Amino acid sequence: MGFGVVLALALFASAGTLSWPMAWAVLVLYMAFSIAGFMVLPPDLIAERSSFPAGSKPADLLIAGLAFLFLFPVSLVVCGLDARFHGSPSIPLRAQVTALVVFALGYGLSLWAARSNRFFSAVVRVQRERGHQVVATGPYAYIRHPGYAGPMLGHLLLPIALGSLWGLVPAALGCAFLALRIGYEERLLDGELPGYSEYVHRVRWRLVPRVW
C-alpha cells in the first residue's frame, strides 16, 4: 500500500492534477499485481523478496537501486511533467490502451516467473540455506530471465500508455541497468550455482528467443 502511495504522488504531484485516467489505470494495475503476488506466491518467497540478506553484494544493490530509480519514480515524474506541460505530441488513445495491455502482460510474465521459481529473490545470491537449485520450468524453459523480461517490456511501454515520449528516456536507462544486472547475475550463478552452466547451454536466450 505504501508503495502505491509513492507511485500516486510521483504521477499526480508532477502532473498537477488528479484528472488523468490512464495514470489511475496504471495504479490499479500495480495494486492488482501486488495483491496477486501475495495471493499466489509462497510465504517463504515473499519473505525472501522482502529482505536484504546478509552477504548481499554492494555492486548488485547499486545496479538494482539505479534500475528501480529510473523505472519507477523518475520515469513516472517525467511522464507527469510531460502531461502537465504537453511536451510530447499527442499519442492516440488506441496506442495508449495497447501499451497499457502490453504493460500488464509484462507484469503477468514476471508474476508467472516468480510463481515458477521459489528462489526468485530481490537480490542476486545463491540461496544455499533454502536449497537453491536451477529452475527450468514455466517461462524458464524458454528464456533464462523472464523475471527481467516482463518488467523491461512493461516499462518500455508504460510511458506510451501515459502519453509521454519523454518518459521513454528514463525507462530505457532503467532497462539498461537491468540488462547490466543480468550479466552480473549470470556470472555469479555460473560460478556458484551447480548445474547453471548446463542450463545456459540448454536455454540459449536471456530475454527474447532468437534475439538475445
Protein architecture, described:
The chain has 212 residues and is mainly alpha-helical. It has one domain (2-202): Four Helix Bundle (Hemerythrin (Met), subunit A) (Up-down Bundle), CATH 1.20.120. 67% of the residues lie in helices and 0% in strands. It is built from eight helices and no strands. It has helices at residues 2-15, 21-40, 43-49, 58-85, 93-116, 146-161, 168-192, 196-202. α1 (2-15) packs antiparallel against α2 and α5 (93-116) packs antiparallel against α6 (146-161).
Notable characteristics:
mainly alpha, globular, Four Helix Bundle (Hemerythrin (Met), subunit A), about 210 residues, about 0% strand, 8 helices
Describe what is shown at a glance:
With 212 residues, this protein is an all-alpha fold. It contains eight helices and no strands. Helices cover 67% and strands 0% of the residues.
